[in-house]
Design a protein that fits this description.
The complex is a heterodimer of chains A (about 260) and B (about 400). Chain A is built from 13 helices and nine strands. Chain A is of the alpha/beta class and about 260 residues long. Chain A has a nine-stranded parallel sheet. Chain B is of the alpha/beta class and about 400 residues long. Chain B folds into two domains: about 20-50 and about 90-205, Rossmann fold (3-Layer(aba) Sandwich), CATH 3.40.50; about 55-85 and about 210-390, Rossmann fold (3-Layer(aba) Sandwich). In chain B, helix 2 (about 40-55) runs antiparallel to helix 4, helix 9 crosses helix 11 (about 240-245) and helix 14 (about 330-345) packs across helix 15. The longest helix of chain B is centred in the N-terminal third of the chain and has 16 residues, at about 25-40. Classes of the chains: A alpha/beta (about 260), B alpha/beta (about 400). At the A-B interface, helix 3, helix 6 and strand 6 of A face helix 8 and strand 11 of B. Chain A: InterPro entries: Aldolase_TIM, RibuloseP-bd_barrel, Trp_synthase_alpha_AS, Trp_synthase_suA.
Chain lengths: ~260, ~400
């Protein structure tokens, strides 16, 4: 059992935080991870930046651009992450788009993840079929979980298939939308979350996209094992007082 | 070997649908339905009727006599510039708007670079009374003001793309974001043979009217439907795919695709994708794209906004990799000179995109008597500013 699977065995109301590697400053990645764990985060998603992030809204786009301008790339990220496990014990995922992974080499990428103690990946534009046919064995060899996304429009058959291929958790998008918009749990959304819980999936679920306050977090937790905060956290980071800004943000969720 | 798409959405190593889950239902709906809709007799009837009565097809295949004499070959121009709205783009937008209606969509989105595809999309939306939103890079909005005005007059909303380089690729990103946020009632009319499967195949089918007509016209004019060479410019590659389509399986016909070298392939200001690019994923398909060592998309450059794109469609990547097509490049200067030459020898002002294909004739050697078809994909009205500045007119 890896750190990720262990987390879901032992905890509820899991708070996962997304942030972009190399932002606000190039060397901040591990320091932010450390501060987040100290302030009570349960799970981290570290984004590796991409020039054309179509699934993201303006905040994560801007942080990705800044990170690229700062000089972040996968090679450097893995160097920075060499010190990760000396300081951080909660599970860590890498999240990003498929092209940088293909250029790094999927096998090299998975090995590097395993070496630095990354527990899994979220690659939203890696198709399920290609993952299954080409890459699943490589992920497995390196002990990595691959996290899939589902939206209110994903069909039940496809959700079952995703459940079969998943071995960490399933990422439920609160709506079909780019990142950074507010969660409004309408009747439709509530019905969708209930529909998912009725499917009795073997994997736990986390709700993401649009979680920005304690209220939306609690709401999401009532439907799933936890929730993911991205844009709201990235927006709150203050380069001048990095640790302070992380602590201040986390206070709202883990007082 | 097959040069066309297989059941998994691939052309050899290229293609597929590399899209986030948020786009999956839209793209899957299209994938499941596009062939049935397109092959339906009523659809075909309406499509061809509109191509004839509204677009003005068939477009002429014109034997350019003075140009032929200069190059010592029979140079035929496929006159897509004479289409309604001034380019080949309308063939695709007519097809996709009919398809969107069959799918019950109420709202149309599109990306545009120079504005030709945006105008062609706004035109068909006006024709059918559908809401139209066009994403266009902020930089392109400034350099293509007349086309922005056309789209607005046609009733479209033009939304500036303000991320990244604020040009075509960013407009494409914004259109994809719109589609993610409007998953039910919206159809995205992609303007080239790029994007996730089935777009490259679908756009190729709609543009294939170009080579379908060319074959018939060649028979009428020369008694032989096999030209020696077929040339077309390539940005994403839709006019080239339309021009190549019915010749691809006939290996006697040499296919030449002309990319934009910009200020020179080694200048750092180029859009010569097959020379400068590597395999990877861009805008939903595996293809060849200009990118850094780390897989970040590189900004292209070309004097021609329609060729200013960092990738090529996956079928082109396959034709390139298998050697079925020859992929070459032409600089900004060479294309502008070729544009002037055609204007003064044949009385046709070509789009600078199309002038790239014409410019390659200078680099070919003919024995005499070869039949050569060049796709004149668009007219040069939109480029008058560039021509005026370059030639001090």
């Amino acid at each position: 059992m890896n750190r990720l699977q262990n987390l879901f065995e032992t905890k509820r109301n899991i708070l996962s935080i997304y942030y972009t590697a190399g932002y606000p400053s190039l060397g901040d990645t591990v320091a932010i991870a450390e501060a987040l764990e100290e302030s009570g985060a349960d799970l981290l998603e570290i984004g590796f930046p991409y020039s054309d992030p179509v699934a993201d809204g303006p905040i994560i786009q801007a942080s990705s651009k800044q990170a690229l301008d700062n000089g972040m790339d996968l090679k450097l990220l893995f160097e920075h992450l060499k010190g990760l496990r000396a300081k951080v014990s909660i599970p860590v995922l890498l999240m990003g788009y498929v092209n940088p992974v293909l250029q790094f080499g999927v096998e090299n990428f998975c090995k590097a993840c395993a070496e630095v103690g990354v527990d899994g990946c979220i690659v939203p534009d890696l198709p399920m079929t290609e993952y299954e046919e080409l890459y699943a064995p490589i992920f497995k060899e390196n002990g990595l979980s691959n996290i899939f996304l589902i939206t209110p429009q994903t069909s039940p058959e496809r959700i079952q298939k995703i459940d079969g291929l998943s071995n960490g958790f399933i990422y439920l998008l609160s709506s079909s939308a780019t990142t950074g918009q507010n969660l409004q749990v309408s009747d439709n959304t509530a019905a969708y979350f209930s529909r998912i819980s009725e499917l009795k999936l073997k994997n736990p679920t986390m709700i993401g996209f649009g979680i920005s306050s304690k209220e939306t977090f609690d709401k999401a937790c009532s439907y799933a094992n936890g929730a993911i905060i991205g844009s709201a956290f990235v927006k709150s980071l203050d380069a001048a007082d990095l640790k302070g800004s992380v602590k201040a943000f986390m206070q709202k969720f883990k007082p | 070997m097959s040069y066309f798409v297989n059941e998994k959405g691939y052309y050899g190593d290229f293609g597929g649908a590399y899209i986030p889950e948020m786009l999956y239902p839209n793209v899957e709906e299209l994938r499941q339905n596009y062939l049935n809709i397109i092959n339906d007799a009523d659809f075909q009837k309406e499509f061809h009727q509109l191509l004839k009565d509204y677009v003005g097809r068939p477009s002429p295949l014109y034997l350019a006599k003075r140009l032929s004499k200069k190059y010592n070959a029979n140079i035929f121009l496929k006159r897509e510039d004479l289409n309604h709205t001034g380019a080949h783009k309308i063939n695709n937008t007519i097809g996709q708007i009919l398809l969107a209606e069959k799918l019950g969509k109420k709202r149309i989105i599109a990306e545009t670079g120079a504005g030709q595809h945006g105008v062609a999309t706004a035109t068909v939306c006006a024709l059918r009374g559908l809401e139209c939103v066009v994403y266009m890079g902020e930089v392109d909005i400034k350099r293509q003001a007349p086309n922005v005005a056309r789209m607005k007059m046609l009733g479209a909303t033009v939304v500036p793309a303000t991320s990244g380089s604020k040009t075509l690729k960013d407009a494409t990103n914004e259109a994809m974001r719109d589609w993610i946020n409007n998953p039910v009632d919206t159809h995205y009319i992609i303007g080239s043979v790029v994007g996730p499967h089935p777009y490259p195949d679908m756009v190729g089918i709609f543009q294939s009217i170009i080579s379908e007509e060319t074959k018939k016209q060649l028979i009428e004019q020369t008694g032989n439907d096999q030209p020696d060479y077929v040339l077309a410019c390539v940005g994403g590659g839709s006019n080239a795919m339309g021009m190549f389509y019915h010749f691809i399986d006939d290996e006697k016909v040499k296919l030449i695709a002309v990319e934009a070298a910009g200020r020179g392939v080694d200048s750092g200001f180029s859009a010569a994708t097959t020379t400068l690019g590597k395999e990877g994923v861009l805008h939903g398909s595996r293809s060849i794209l200009m990118q850094t060592h780390d897989g970040q998309v590189v900004e292209p450059h070309s004097v021609s906004a329609g060729l200013d794109y960092p990738g090529i469609g996956p079928q082109h990547a396959h034709l390139f990799k298998t050697g079925r097509g020859k992929y070459v490049s032409i600089t900004d200067d060479e294309s502008l000179q070729a544009g002037l030459l055609l204007t003064q020898m044949e009385g046709i002002i070509p789009a600078i995109e199309s002038a790239h294909a014409l410019a390659y004739l200078e680099k070919m050697e003919f024995k005499g008597g070869e039949n050569v078809v060049v796709c004149l994909s668009g007219r040069g009205d939109k480029d008058m500013d560039t021509y005026m500045k370059y030639f001090n007119l």
